[in-house]
Mandelate racemase/muconate lactonizing enzyme family protein
Amino acid sequence: MQRRQFLHKTIVSSSLLATPSVFNLDQTAGSELPAWKLPDLHKAIADPVPIRSVELLKTQGQLMVVVTAQDGTKGITQCNERMQNLTSLLKGLVIEHFTGKDARDLPQLIDDAYRLNSNYKYAGMSLWNCIGSVEIAVWDLLGRLSKKPVYQLLGKPLRNQYEVYISDFDRGTDTADVVVERLAQKLAATGAKGVKIKVGGRMRNTPEDDRRTRLFVPLVRKKLGDKITIYADANGSYTPEEGIEIGHMLEDNGVAIFEEPCNFEDEEGLRRVNKSLTKLRLAGGEQDTSLYRFERLARTDVYDLLQADIYYNGGILRGLQVAEIARAYGKTIAPHTPKSDPLIAPFWHLAAICPNLYGLQEFVYELNSKPATWYEPAIRVQNGVMQIPNTPGLGINYDEQIWKSAERIV
């Protein structure tokens, strides 16, 4: 057994002894995974917080989960674009496990929504995205009731800001020169210190995709200069052999992170790519929702950097548990969060307390964009840095007028 594998195994064994169950709940079969040590919410909030209702509303063109306590206090999160196709699961499987319950028992409510009534048979992004959206809204509720930012309920704050990179999603619609010029303008406007570009064709790699990538990457490095950090996202475009070849080209151009080179289900192919590349980090996990799979991805060196999506993966607590799983194997995380609207809010609170957050974090910036008027604060980056709000709840306040015309979906 290699020394690194032995050390990893020892770390995990000690982690299991220290934290024997998910979210510090009673031990259940098969739940032997490192867990986030959540402070006692019953001590943080002395009185019970009965949840009166969980609703899905549509306003400002967005779906919003609104959790209302018995005293009328509300917790809110915007939903991601997946929710529009998942409303039947939210209504039929998830909401009942939260209504009428004490919000301070949130870890147990999450577990119940997964395990009870055979809900686990739906496990995957579809179920966990619904559970995660409710969980995030409940955190907002608890933060508002306690008059604390959510991160203070989760653990010890380690940072009040983080540095960002700017994403560009173009895959050949615009010319390479246009994309690079746009990136340069975004860097100048935000002061960001890095960019993420798309390589390959997204789950395919046509000859045209390949030619574009091989011309585009050196151009980005040449035009933006050596001081700018470059991340490259393939979205599963390559076979393992292609991934290795493109990976070496990325290394030659000083790219720092290569995200999801192969189909995310091809663990062995991804592992081969990672083993063959020595100058950059392989990243992935956006599509994954199984904590056991995250453990395997870390333990078997499929990825160096885990990128669970906070909503897809079931919320803030499960995001922190992925961080603990990664930490047990000496690995880091950078959650998938390409947002510049209220969807970024739960990431703020994970980022505030996560000990193994890696590198620059993603931010989407559109040139000439105007701040939204239906919530505050305006979400912006200055000098390459995102400040983490220290206001109660998730840190987003909504204009009360938007609820008057909201359509109830669930």
In short: The chain has two domains: 48-148+400-408, 153-391. The domain at 48-148+400-408 is CATH 3.30.390.10 (Enolase-like; domain 1).
